[in-house]
Structure formats: C-alpha cells, structure tokens
C-alpha cells in the first residue's frame, strides 16, 4: 500500500525503468453512495505485472501519478466513472 507522496514518486520511478512505451492498468474506487460529492478512496495500479494499491486519502500530492499517466498508455475497464475521478 502506497500512503505517502515520496513512496509514490519512488514507485513511479521504478516503473519508468524498462521498456517503452509505458503500459499501465488503473482502476479506482470511490465513495459516492450518498448525495455528497464523491471521494476517491483507492487506486489500483499495475505496470508490467507489478500491482500496488495507492491510498489517495493519505497522499497529499497525487500529481506525480497524473504526470506518469500523461506519458503512458493506460488500460482501464468501464472507465466512464473512473475518468470523473481524475479531474
């Protein structure tokens, strides 16, 4: 479980080592059961068979993940709702 920005940066740096293009799979879980604004609660992230969980509630700065995704080919399933979480 990745719970800090420095650990996220470290993990993403490790993901960048290896062959290009960078392929990753990502899925999100959110709390939108109530009328309140939804909250991103969990990110499941995989690169080259290495899967990790990212805790967006604990991490202050998720911009390193956003920057990584801008340069990667991203695979998602049923991404219509997930995409709203990345605004």
First and last CA, distance = 23 Å
Largest sheet: 4 strands, mixed
CATH H-level name... which superfamily?
Answer: Ribonuclease H-like superfamily/Ribonuclease H
Number of domains: 1
The amount of helix comes to 25-40%
Task: Give the CATH level 1 class.
Answer: Alpha Beta
What structural class do the secondary elements suggest? alpha+beta
What's this, in brief?
This protein is an alpha+beta fold and 87 residues long. 31% of the residues lie in helices and 30% in strands.
Structure description:
The protein is an alpha+beta fold. It has one domain (5-85): Nucleotidyltransferase, domain 5. Helices cover 31% and strands 30% of the residues. The protein contains three helices and four strands, in the order H-E-E-E-H-E-H. It has a four-stranded mixed β-sheet with strand order 3-2-1-4. The longest helix is centred in the N-terminal third of the chain and has 12 residues, at 5-16. It is globular and about 45 Å long. The chain starts with a helix and ends with a helix.
SSE inventory with pairings:
Layout: H1 5-16, E1 23-31, E2 39-47, E3 50-54, H2 63-70, E4 73-75, H3 79-85
Looking at this protein, list some descriptive labels.
31% helix, 87 residues, alpha+beta, 4-stranded mixed β-sheet, globular, Nucleotidyltransferase, domain 5
